[in-house]
Amino acid sequence: MPSGLQQWTRMTGPIGELLLTSDGDSLTGVYVGAPLPGVVLGDQRSAPVLTAARRQLDAWFAGDLRAFDLPTAPAGTPFQCRVWAAVRAIPYGSTSTYGAVALAAGATVGAAMAVGSASARNPLSIVVPCHRLTTAAGRLRGGPEGARRKEILQEFERRALAST
User: Fold this and answer.
1) N or C: which end of the chain has fewer CB within 10 A?
2) Looking at domain 78-162, which CATH architecture does it have?
3) Contacts of 81 (CB under 8 A, 6+ apart)
């Protein structure tokens, strides 16, 4: 988890209220609703990275942005960080399987469940697009609310690609 108090701001997006956190220099979290356990919020602030993140998220939701250009510092284990880096490499509007991401993160396809666990701990929702992950059968995971949110985010990307 991030160390120290996190600067934060909130914004409303099409999937609900988003909580954005920063260590002052980098974006450390984009959460739908509440942050992951262990995140300690400090004062609400308008750090430059939070302002940039809001602007880029607005552009992403509008279909005008395909890739985020933000300094990020997600707190996680080395394996989680490799998974999140592999997920960021999934092209906009595409999907990949948990098994394929396991291979890209230096594990075996049998580590698909570990990728799912890392995905569930992703502190940078949307910026690290875990909504692009599917099972080998093409299904979305994440419980009823999480799977529905992933479906909505994938639809944003499909519509944006169709309108270009």
Assistant:
1) C
2) Orthogonal Bundle (1.10)
3) 74
